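Example 3.
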Amino acid sequence: MKKNWTILLAGLALWGVALTGYSSEKPVLLRNANIITVSGENILGGDILIQGTKIVRVGKNLPAGPEAEAIDLAGQWIMPGIIDSHSHIAVEGEVNESGELISSEVDVRDVINPEDINIYYALTGGVTTIHTMHGSGNPIGGKGIVLKMRWGKSAEEMIFQGAPLTSKWALGENPKQTNYQGPGRARYPKTRMGVEDSIRNEFELARDYMRQWKDYEKRLKASQDSKGKIPAPLPPKKDYRLEGVADILNGKLWVRCHGYQSEEMLSIMRLCREYGVKLVCFEHGLEGYRITNELVKYGVGISTFADAWAYKWEAYNTMPHAAALAAKRGVVVAINSDDAERMRHLFNDAAKTVRFGGLSELEAIKTLTLNPAKIMGIEKWVGTIEAGKDADLAVFNKHPLDPYTVCTMTMVDGKVCFDRAKYLEDRKKAEEEKKKKEAEAKAPKEKKNGAEV
Amino acid sequence: MRNDGHRLKISFGAILLCGLALSSFLYSDEELHKVWAVKDCKVIRPGGPTIEKGTVLIRDGLIEAVGVGLPIPPDAEVIDGSKLTAYPGLIDALGQSLLKLPEEKFDMAKIYSGEFTDKDKGITPDLRAYDYVNLGKSVFEKYYKFGFTAGQVMPDRGILTGQSSFFCLSNPDKAKSLILRDVCLGIGFNTPSVMVYPNSLMGIQAYLKQVFQDGIYFEMNKSRWLKDMKGIKRPAYSSTYENMADYTSGKKPVIFLCRNQHDIRRALDLAAEFNLNFFICDLGNESFEAIPELKKAKARVLCTVAFKAPATSLFSQRGKTEREKAEKEVYPKNPAKLAEAGIPFAFSSLATDDPKSFLEGILKAVEAGLPKDRALTALTLTPASFFGLERALGTIEPGKIANLVLAEGDLLVKDAKVKYAFADGKEFELKETKTKEGEKPAVNVTGKWEVTLAQAGFKVTIDFTQEEAALSGKMAAPFGAFDLTGGTVSGNDVSFDVNISVGGQEIDLYFSATVEGDTMRGTVVQGTSGSDEFTAKRIPG
């Protein structure tokens, strides 16, 4: 009985610590907004209660409590923070390691630049999470990383904990280096067949590499068991490139494959099935609307543009309806930016799927929220507005799909990371201060001159 | 007499022409005084109390004794130090300006073959500063003027940039001035060529890991084979891995050349993964942004003082005004912040072009809050102990190398007046620049001039740059190109020195001339050994 007492006491103490930890941050109540929950119906004139980094409750007329900081958002629209599943911002240096054909050893995580001002610009367009990655110059490129737009934090703190790591692949003209105009030799491969073969070849090398290590471990054990009679074997040489490929084969890395044409996409899906590789998404995938049955069957999404095409020959066979067509047939479609500027108005791009392809408003909003979250394996935490999810929110003065909408506020983890009104006020103040300083700098000079005269 | 003069004239021409060295012109250690006594000077001792009126005795390159009222040895040359302050010679913890690396041209033919060497990829641990160092009296003088008498030099190109050497700035013969060879290995985040792997920053980070891993693997293989050659295939020789061995094992330190705070974090990742003995050279002045990480890693920092905002910084991204403001107000505080956080650091002249701007940068750091005594420590004791030289350099105490400078007043001030410098016990007197007493210049000689040496019978070209009374430039001779030093213009008169090194010999030439329009007429003196007359004509254009 005594024992139980102490346990109970310890439990209480822990609970107390947890409670104080929890309540150290004031709850925030967003009130009277039109909420696009994505997980259910829109709530017009609803409230969202945020505690710490999480959404606690969503509904109408939520009690504020005496401690809560209430923000009145009457007439404004709130949607889940926008998730850009294909981006290259916040990367220091080149996004392509093009010195050699395969670059599975390189990792965007090593070169995150948390000071990239495009992170802030992304926030001005309601973007709260991005997948930033290696370019499309290599059949198997480097590893990508999912970041939360925690502006002002360090690279390590910006990483979306729990998000699966990715491997960037590329098919077609880019790995073939069709548009490469610099001096130098023509790098293998020069055909789409060759691109696929270079991936298969790397798979075989990595399998052999893994076998070598398994064999080594076996022999090492035998040596240890023999108590010195069998000499310790020489380990295989560690190879970071092949380890990257081995991680793909072991399913540790989710594959994000750049591709345009339906034939090559079909072919690479076959290759991935053969090797048991987790292919989650085609990047761009402009001809994806032609192979929707296969994409649905194998659970491969597409991360694409609303209406960007015909910028090179492999990108001709599509139309502004493509994303909507694929989505209507059940493909998980994400509308992405691939560009720091486009990133600031992805909501306009999503609206195009309604305008051209006739998607419902909800389905259009999903292309920026729940769908990319699914593709990135983070839908447990983000992508909808519901209790228990991260408080990543984008606030607009009009419906986000309205052509005249403006993002007024962006929250990441329950913190306001962008507030347009405050930003404009700060800018005004800074300008006034600058003018004042300039005037001051001028004034004494004139006096001095006067004195000299 | 006539005969003698004739011999001298011929020799003078012969030296200039052929680079032959005749004994009468040699700059020789043996002729110099070996014993010196600096009397009644103030002695600054970093980390200890100052001696207000003491004597420093120097014998055979070492400090023999320091103290109050020491007896002056009869064989000593005496310097009256009653108006002087003795400082330990300053140490440049890491520099480049004494190094003359060969120009590298990438062989484009290799792109077609696709076969690249380690060197093409920027992996050159076999590149030694010792082999490419460029020492000379005129170079030393530039350093002495600001109190420097020793420094470390290291190649800084590519990824594994090469190995450093520590020099005393005492003798043009590098074998004599060398203190330690192959001290540190440089690691830079520089892409060697667009065409060659690795050509991205993330590629460099990945490749560095692979190279270190390969180096370790090579050593493991080698030591296995050396232990028992029977039954094991011997590993192929690799210059790269052989030269890396002491650094991968942690026996010797590496220096990461970090351009910004993110490079610093990448460096710390690598250092932790491979358990390296390391220094962070902070080229971007952003180590203050990574203080917790640096502390945790027990990092030692080499601070540079150009205080330019890295391109990745938010200040740079926000435009010129913000960047310049930060370069004035934020970055110069970096050393002070490190001092406050208790992170050990020394000063490096990398990123600043010359000793002058190096010292100016250090003074900026002092202005921004770095205590002066901390600045002095970071130029003396700390760099000495960083590189295992604390028993040889860093303070004025008996038994240490006689590296010290005598200044009128404070050394760490703008326009410091260094009067004497001792390096390895060799005395060098710094002459007052003539500009101050001279008349205002009445001519401007900026431009190229063709100089004809009458008796030597050949021509050289001098490209002058005149800024008010100060004259600098370059002399191009058939046997090499040399910098002008100590040049001044006063009225119609010009004077300048050229320090020539030919065939391993150092020759000082003192030029003085009168200018008339586009012509110049004067004499050139070679020490006490000979003189020649010269005329010069301005080359139009």
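The two ends of chain B are 44 Å apart (CA to CA). Residues 201-227 of chain B form the longest helix (27 residues).
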